[in-house]
Amino acid sequence: MSSIDHPHIRRLGADDLGAMHGLLDLFARVFEDHESYSCARPDAAYLTRLLAEPTFFAIVAEVSGVVIGGLAAYELRKFEQARSEIYLYDLGVLEAWRRKGIATRLIDALRAEATRIGAWVIFVQADYIDPPAIALYEKLGTREEVLHFDIALH
Predict the structure, then answer these.
(1) What is the value of pTM for the model shown?
(2) Is-contact 60 10, C-beta < 8 A?
């Protein structure tokens, strides 16, 4: 199979600023949210530090060096037990590449990273208005009904 049939999946590191910008561009496009992902983008020093953090995971799917899918996740260390959880914060795949198993491969790569560091579980939130995401996560995990609240700081 060619690389077009099987995108290359990898975790980004501190030297991958170009791919990180590609991931941010991808999120802006697939979530239709240019204000969050493009308007106040961090500078190179900030992104380099973030990518160097062992508790931050940026995993991408690339074809010929172009990011066509990716995720961002964080390790959250727990206080009640000596363990951690991985919060899958964002996951997106360009529309032309959907339904080809790329999102599952990205999550599998995150699973491998979580296993490597001894994490207990990966958790993710989905919006009711996103049936494809819900179907993906139900295929891979156990659904819990919870409420989410944003508490303003001002």
Answers:
(1) 0.86
(2) yes
| C-alpha–C-alpha distance, residues 95 and 86, integer Å | 26
Sign of CA dihedral 124, 125, 130, 131: positive
Q: What's the rounded Cα separation, in Å, for the pair 124 and 88?
A: 5
Q: Consecutive sets of 10 residues in the chain, 154 residues long: mean pLDDT of each?
A: 72 98 97 94 97 98 97 96 94 95 96 96 78 66 69 76
Give me the residue label for tokens 């995108």: 7
Top-tier CATH class for 8-140:
alpha beta
> What are the sequence ranges of the domains in the chain?
8-140
Which two structure tokens, joined as six digits, stand for 22? Answer: 């590609």
Residue with token string 């992902």: 37
CA distance from start to end of the chain: 53
Among 126, 69, 58, 73, which residue's Cα sits nearest to residue 101? 69
